[in-house]
Specification:
Strand order of the largest sheet: 2-1-6-5-7-8-9-10-11-15-14-13-12
Number of strands: 21
Radius of gyration: 21 Å
Helix content: 10-25%
Structural class: alpha/beta
Largest sheet: 13 strands, mixed
Order of helices and strands: EEHHEEHEHEEHEEEEEEEEEEHEEHEHE
Strand content: 25-35%
Shape: globular
Number of helices: 8
């Protein structure tokens, strides 16, 4: 794989070439992951394995051809106009596709990469041109004032920002993609509800599911598990995952719709379901804080009656996978095992 000789990695204030970086001994585990991923990217094998996050199902390893990840990286560099000499901050885990693709883009584009431990709120990111992060990291950085002087571009992966969050001073894009597509195949501005395909990508739909066509990624037809409103063959509005859809009394309830509604009121909640003798399934509101009965009633009263959660489960902390995404699989298990703790709504 071609690497730009001008690519630099910045660690503890010192610049390293890629060969210098991978030879640093006795480094912390997070940097060791970066070293190993760089070795995987640059070795002579024509494929590289990536672990899926396991946020909606069992984690699995997916192998991608290196020419595919290069093609993906080139599309991203072109879209964001990142060229030799621009800088980026790596604050995602390098073992997952989001962090690994930032390394690939940097190696190809000749970027200067500032390496940070992938924690919720790393310090010293405000001076770079480009950041890839999770919504949770963005919110933490924003609230801590770390982005007050930031003038670059932020790419979000994993999920969208909560509804009602306004960051007009920041240039934020939300990516749509998965490990199988070597990161995102579509992007939307934080101020838009619609995703637009990257160059070379088109979309169709089959039985309600989005279908991706991306010849440069060697994808002729990838049927996703995502329900969308297809606007044309280059854009869509995301509705929710088909396997998260709740069938309650014959009505389809999309958890994301309710979650975004609560988010617009300032509450982070998640929706799951339990079996119900009358409705087949009943929606469950999962929270990690107490909402007063009065406040909760005001929020729920605005929802159509047949879409309101019928039970509430309060937990200590929302489970997350290593990449930072919400672990919906664990939430489903929690609800199933905690039916005796559900409170009627």
């Amino acid at each position: 794989m071609y690497t730009n000789p001008h690519t630099k990695f910045v660690y503890l204030g010192k610049e390293y070439s890629v060969l210098e970086l991978v030879k640093i001994p006795n480094v912390p585990n997070w940097l060791r992951c970066i070293q190993l991923q760089l070795q995987n990217i640059l070795n002579k094998e024509d494929q590289i394995g990536f672990q899926t996050s396991g946020s909606t199902g069992d984690p699995k390893k997916i192998w991608l051809k290196k020419k595919v990840i290069v093609a993906s990286a080139q599309k991203t560099l072109a879209f964001f106009q990142l060229t030799q000499g621009h800088s980026a901050a790596l604050i995602l885990p390098a073992q997952f596709i989001g962090g690994a693709m930032l390394l690939v883009r940097s190696l190809i584009g000749g970027l200067s990469v500032h390496l940070h431990e992938p924690i919720l709120c790393p310090k010293g990111v405000e001076s770079v041109d480009f950041i890839s992060c999770t919504p949770a990291q963005l919110m933490a950085l924003y609230k801590a004032g770390q982005l007050d002087a930031f003038k670059g571009t932020i790419l979000l992966g994993g999920s969208s920002l909560p509804e009602g969050i306004h960051m007009d001073s920041l240039n934020v894009y939300i990516g749509y993609g998965m490990t199988e597509t070597a990161s995102h195949v579509a992007l939307r501005s934080i101020n838009s509800a619609h995703y637009t395909a990257l160059e070379g990508v088109t979309f169709s739909a089959k039985k309600g599911a989005l279908v991706i066509h991306a010849p440069h990624l060697e994808i002729s037809e990838l049927i996703t598990n995502d329900e969308v409103e297809l606007l044309d063959n280059k854009s869509f509005k995301f509705i929710g995952r088909l396997d998260d859809t709740i069938n309650s009394g014959g009505l389809k309830i999309h958890p994301l719709e309710i979650e975004q509604y609560f988010s617009s009121k300032g509450f982070e909640v998640y929706i799951s379901a339990v079996p119900h003798k009358d409705f087949g399934e009943a929606a469950v509101l999962i929270t990690q804080f107490k909402i007063s009965k009065h406040r909760l009633k005001k929020i729920l009263d605005v929802l159509p009656k047949n879409k309101r959660p019928k039970f509430q489960l309060n937990i200590l902390e929302f489970p997350r996978v290593a990449s930072g995404k919400i672990d919906r699989k664990s939430i489903r298990i929690m609800v199933k095992e905690s039916q005796h703790l559900l409170s009627p709504l």
